[in-house]
Specification:
It is a single chain. The chain is mainly alpha-helical. The chain contains ten helices and five strands; from the N terminus they run H-H-E-E-H-H-H-E-H-H-E-E-H-H-H. Helix 1 packs across helix 2.
Length: about 240
């Protein structure tokens, strides 16, 4: 038993619309080597996949952190080859952890632009139920980092109740993990000065987030393989 998760191939116009950028930007990134080339199909039309979309999201996050194009090129060149959309999403989540939460209030049309697609009233209602957006007298308070995740969840074939229940499970266990890790780190640096503690915290946060995401991804993959009755791949934990 398998679950079909592969997204349909996208034209350059569709990719740009989904990513919330212009076609010119996509072509520019391609010429700079930031995006891998598309698969050329019939009639010499290039088709893009979920890896291209995830890479564009990562580039956007790196830009949000204030990195120059040259710095982004260096960062992407250091990534292991052959990363799929899930791997790239993990890297984007780690990069997003570098910055504090940023909530902004935007008009309805700007919400569509940030989401990278048109949102129906039902979409906005579901995003509000997930605490991704909040109505503020016709405008919307939104954390751009959470918005991309929320929009992706809109396309998951699960009921709103299941999505919200999953959110509560993740919140509960992530808080518990954060509290325990914080205690361990606090005890480990008890003898250090305040400035040393702040410096260590700054360096440790992205490393801890990456470790949590990687561990969770592997654990979830193992659980899903057991649920689906698929054989374990060689070398998997």
């Amino acid at each position: 038993m398998t679950i079909e998760t592969e997204e349909p191939a996208l034209t350059v116009d569709e990719l740009a619309a989904r990513a919330g950028v212009t076609v010119r930007t996509v072509r520019f990134y391609s010429t700079r080597g930031l995006l891998p080339p598309p698969v050329i199909g019939p009639r010499r039309v290039g088709h893009y996949g979920p890896e291209h979309l995830a890479r564009l999201a990562l580039i956007e996050e790196l830009q949000r952190q204030g990195m120059t194009l040259a710095a982004i090129e260096r960062y992407l060149n250091q990534l292991p080859p052959g990363l799929d959309a899930q791997d790239l999403a993990i890297h984007r989540a780690v990069v997003a952890s570098w910055a504090p939460e940023t909530v902004e209030t935007v008009p309805r049309q700007e919400l569509d632009r940030l989401a990278g697609r048109h949102l129906t009233d039902e979409d906005v209602r579901r995003l509000a139920a997930m605490d991704v957006v909040a109505d503020d007298n016709g405008s919307f308070r939104v954390d751009a980092g959470l918005l991309r995740l929320g929009v992706a969840l809109l396309d998951v074939p699960l009921s709103q109740e299941v999505v919200l229940a999953a959110r509560e499970v993740l919140l509960e266990h992530s808080r518990a993990a954060a509290q325990e890790l914080s205690r361990l780190l606090r005890d480990a640096v008890a003898e250090r000065g305040a400035e040393d503690v702040r410096s260590l915290s700054t360096h440790m946060q992205p490393l801890v987030v990456e470790a949590l995401l990687t561990t969770f991804q592997r654990s979830l993959g193992k659980e899903l393989r057991g649920w689906l009755g698929e054989p374990r791949t060689g070398g998997s934990p």
